[in-house]
Write a structure and sequence with these properties.
With 130 residues, the chain is of the alpha+beta class. The protein has helices at 23-33, 79-88, and strands spanning 5-6, 9-10, 15-19, 37-42, 46-51, 54-59, 72-75, 98-102, 107-114, 120-125. The radius of gyration is 16 Å and the shape is globular.
Length: 130
């Protein structure tokens, strides 16, 4: 059994695809505003980024697949500081960082925003509680 499967099924995401209508504009947002590591492009339709070992593929939609993208949740240690950093780069947040759950050992915090193509994105932080 390889590292992408367990006895109960799949366990690891390798790549996430997000639809975009303007690849160059989306590359500037993901690279410059969000600070993701740009890997390579396959013009005119594709661009790839590394998200901590998971590859993000931005691509123009094929007519049969022009649908809203998935929500990407980016794990961050300090959600308020990252929100300030991204805001300074022109990212407009829909929500302030807010707690959505308190678990036995940690809290779960979110802050929502959109990319230049209208795809929903979010920062997620899970600070430990003492």
């Amino acid at each position: 059994m390889n590292d992408s499967m367990t006895a109960t099924g799949l366990s690891r995401i390798r790549q996430i695809s997000m639809r975009v209508h303007d690849v160059d504009r989306a590359v500037r947002f993901y690279r410059d505003a969000l600070g993701l590591q740009f890997l390579f492009a396959a013009p005119p339709r594709l661009a790839f980024f590394d998200c901590g070992g998971v590859r993000l593929m931005l691509s123009t939609p094929e007519p049969a697949f022009d649908h809203p993208g998935s929500i990407l949740y980016f794990a961050v240690d300090d959600i308020r500081r990252m929100r300030e950093t991204l805001t300074s780069r022109g990212v407009a947040f829909r929500t302030e960082p807010h707690r959505i759950a308190t678990l036995a050992d940690r809290e779960v915090w979110l802050a929502d925003f959109e990319d230049t193509e209208g795809n929903a994105l979010a920062l997620m932080s899970e600070p430990k509680v003492s």
